[in-house]
UniProtKB/TrEMBL annotation:
<protein>
    <recommendedName>
        <fullName>HIT domain-containing protein</fullName>
    </recommendedName>
</protein>
<dbReference type="GO" id="GO:0003824">
    <property type="term" value="F:catalytic activity"/>
</dbReference>
<feature type="short sequence motif" description="Histidine triad motif">
    <location>
        <begin position="113"/>
        <end position="117"/>
    </location>
</feature>
<dbReference type="InterPro" id="IPR036265">
    <property type="entry name" value="HIT-like_sf"/>
</dbReference>
<dbReference type="Pfam" id="PF11969">
    <property type="entry name" value="DcpS_C"/>
</dbReference>
<feature type="domain" description="HIT">
    <location>
        <begin position="20"/>
        <end position="128"/>
    </location>
</feature>
<dbReference type="InterPro" id="IPR011146">
    <property type="entry name" value="HIT-like"/>
</dbReference>
Length: 178
């Protein structure tokens, strides 16, 4: 069975070809400097910074938003947060109590590709933009709260076509022989 945490996304090929964050992740955007990257994540500066340090961490895989995630993505969210904190550390930020890490939720996202906002110092977020980064609002959820929320969200069922009986069967039922 495929690992739904890494294979499932709610996009089609057109989204990936036109998504600015997919272009950045695949190094096809000449205007964006990647600050740090891993095999499956990329970090770069936000083009409209709201704090002295404002970075975005994105997965290379196109995932629409944090509302597209399930418990199989908890590790992804943890790795995104770790990369964001590593970048802050590399940039000389040592006070990890004055940072804000989180995701905007639909309909408050400007780019339809999962991205973690990494801001520091949180105490210096622009007063004109602070409303966008208030934790635990409908607009913004911290990575810590998102990880807790994902624990109760099961992955979507996957179906496959059974050649012999011409029926669709749930992957879980196929594995258990039901």
């Amino acid at each position: 069975m495929e690992d739904t945490a890494t294979s499932w996304s709610n996009s089609d090929e057109n989204d990936v070809e036109t998504c600015i964050f997919c272009l950045i992740a695949n190094k096809k955007d000449e205007n964006t400097k990647i600050i740090k990257e891993t095999k499956d994540l990329v970090c770069f500066s936000d083009i409209f910074p709201c704090a002295p340090h404002h970075y975005l961490v994105i997965p290379r895989q196109h995932i629409l938003s944090c509302l597209s995630l399930h418990k199989g993505h908890i590790d992804l969210v943890e790795r995104m947060a770790k990369l964001g904190k590593d970048v802050l550390h590399d940039q000389g930020i040592t006070d990890m109590t004055d940072i804000r890490l989180g995701f905007h939720q639909l309909p408050f996202i400007s780019v339809g590709h999962l991205h973690l906002h990494v801001l520091a110092p949180a105490s210096q977020i622009s007063k004109y933009m602070l409303y966008k980064f208030i934790p635990e609002t409908n607009r913004f959820v911290t990575e810590e709260v998102l990880r807790k929320r994902l624990k109760s969200i099961s992955p979507p069922l996957q179906y496959h076509y059974l050649e012999n009986c011409k029926l669709f069967q749930c992957i879980s039922c196929a594995q258990t022989g039901l």
